[in-house]
Amino acid sequence: KPIVLEQPAKFTPPSHGRALPKKKRPMQYGPKIGEEEREAMKGKQYPHMMPPEGTVMHRVLTSRGLHLWVSLSVLTSLAFYTFLQNFLHTTPFRHLLPSRALLTSSPLEYLSQFFQVYKMHIEHVSQETAEKRKRAVEDAERRKEYRRRHGEEGVG
């Protein structure tokens, strides 16, 4: 037999329901503030608060374009720094990199030498990767041949 709940005498809405109407303004203790005082408060500077609307500082702090530019610039520079440090610590051709003094005296020559070393590094990494893949394929073939010779054809 299903449980039947007792019907309430009248509907009492929940005190914290999400369907309750929202109050228009936040509750404020003290006397009501007039429109003149409210306008005066907009232009006033309080500690630890946003600057008043219409000021340069308010536009800087609320500018989406400026925030986007700064954040993308920081992320791009961090990505470049990480890439450069990873390259410098993993390349076997570090001794072939040009000196930093060459960067100030002739930056184009510095960059051309740097990119030549980078191309050598990429070729080296590609060769290592190809060798690893070749070894993995040969190992798989050896295991397959071993299983075939020892009668374990269906295993694996």
From TrEMBL:
<feature type="region of interest" description="Disordered">
    <location>
        <begin position="1"/>
        <end position="32"/>
    </location>
</feature>
<keyword id="KW-1133">Transmembrane helix</keyword>
<protein>
    <submittedName>
        <fullName>Uncharacterized protein</fullName>
    </submittedName>
</protein>
<keyword id="KW-0812">Transmembrane</keyword>
<keyword id="KW-0472">Membrane</keyword>
<feature type="region of interest" description="Disordered">
    <location>
        <begin position="128"/>
        <end position="156"/>
    </location>
</feature>
<feature type="transmembrane region" description="Helical">
    <location>
        <begin position="66"/>
        <end position="84"/>
    </location>
</feature>
